[in-house]
Write a structure and sequence with these properties.
Layout (H helix, E strand, L loop, with lengths): L1 H21 L7 H4 L13 H30 L2
GO biological process, one term: protein secretion
Subcellular location: Cell membrane
Family: Belongs to the SecG family.
C-alpha cells in the first residue's frame, strides 16, 4: 500500500508540475521578461485553459491526499 501511494505521489507531483508549466502567463512577471508579454490578450480563457485548470486542481488534490495518507500510515503503522 505504501509503495503504491509513493508511486502515485511521484506521478502526481510530476503531472502537477507539467500542468502548471503549461498554463499561459497572466501577469507581467517572469513570462514577460522572456518575451511572454508580447502576446496580446484578444481571447479570454478558452475551454482548453479551463480544462487545464481542472486537471491541475484534480492532480493537486490527489497529491495532497497521498501525502496525508502516507503520513497517517507512518504515524499509526501499517
Amino acid at each position: 500500500m505504501t509503495l503504491a501511494l509513493q508511486i502515485i505521489l511521484v506521478l502526481s507531483a510530476v503531472l502537477v508540475t507539467v500542468f502548471v508549466l503549461l498554463h499561459k502567463g497572466k501577469g507581467g512577471g517572469l513570462s514577460s521578461l522572456f518575451g511572454g508579454g508580447v502576446q496580446s490578450n484578444l481571447s479570454g480563457s478558452t475551454i482548453v485553459e479551463k480544462n487545464l485548470d481542472r486537471y491541475t486542481i484534480f492532480m493537486a488534490i490527489i497529491w495532497i491526499v497521498c501525502i496525508i495518507a502516507l503520513n497517517l500510515i507512518q504515524a499509526y503503522g501499517g
